[in-house]
Amino acid sequence: MLGLKFFRSFFATSSLVLAGFALAACNEDGAGQVQAGPAVTVLTTPSRVAITIDDLPYVMPSKTSPEEGLRYTTQIIAALQEHGIVATGFAVGQQINPQSIPALQAFADAGHTIGNHSWSHPDYGTLTRDEFHDETRWTDEILQQWIDGPRYYRFPFLREGETEAAKTAATRVLEELGYQNVPVTIDNDEWQFNADYLAALEDGDEAAAATIARNYVAHMQIRTAFFQSLAIDELGGDVDHVLLVHLNRINADHLGTLLEWYDAQGWTFISVDEAITHPVFSRPDPYAGPRGLSQIERVLGGKRD
Hints:
The chain is of the alpha/beta class. It has a single domain, classed as TIM Barrel, CATH 3.20.20. 45% of the residues lie in helices and 10% in strands. It has eleven helices and seven strands. The strands form two sheets. Strands 1, 2, 3, 6 and 7 form a five-stranded parallel beta sheet that branches. Strands 4-5 form a two-stranded parallel sheet. Strand 4, helix 6 (164-177) and strand 5 form a beta-alpha-beta unit. Helix 8 packs across helix 9 (249-265).
């Protein structure tokens, strides 16, 4: 496995720092070609990982036709099915309408769990306690026909409160409504790759889109290895991971490639139900602030390299 010291050294000396993998997706040279990230063989100590998918029924419904959204969903379902994965998807309430319901229904019919991702996807730091309650309750009401079992919540932007009082208030609202927060251990910038990927496809630049897709997969591999190393080096042992992706075009086209890499590395796919029983999800979280962080970073007090 490539250890945490390697990642710190690599990203300190490379012109493409960890966040720079996102830039690799959109930077262009004089010839207008998207630049591929550095060729790095990413190895990990295999662990267990649950796959979670945000922004159901699908990302950017105002720019995505119902037909496209359903196609993205069915492609992602097929990739999950190939690896025997039961995923959890988090739905944004106001994006659920008669046009998008077929995609959400297809996800549920495939045996995946649906959770609550707020009504309008706001930054919790901009809400009062009562507004957070309403955002959660409105989506809870519309999701009743799809929730049969555990009730899971995912904070938009992974922002759980800028003060201890705000964190406590959110916890009490979720408890009142019967929800359990599902943090993420493997955070990433996949959403930015999707934006660049869509722009390249819209421009008809298939070569650029292909390069962005390769950079996306490399970015996700490196983020996985980084957080696995962070857990082992800083927490003293392996953890069960929760991966965050979105229901978008780049995952519709390339999530299968990423899942094949996990399989080849020896990782085991588990459900969210299994993952969140790991002690890392019940450890004290001393971080209060505006950033959206991995659960590993949160229990380390907001430490980010």
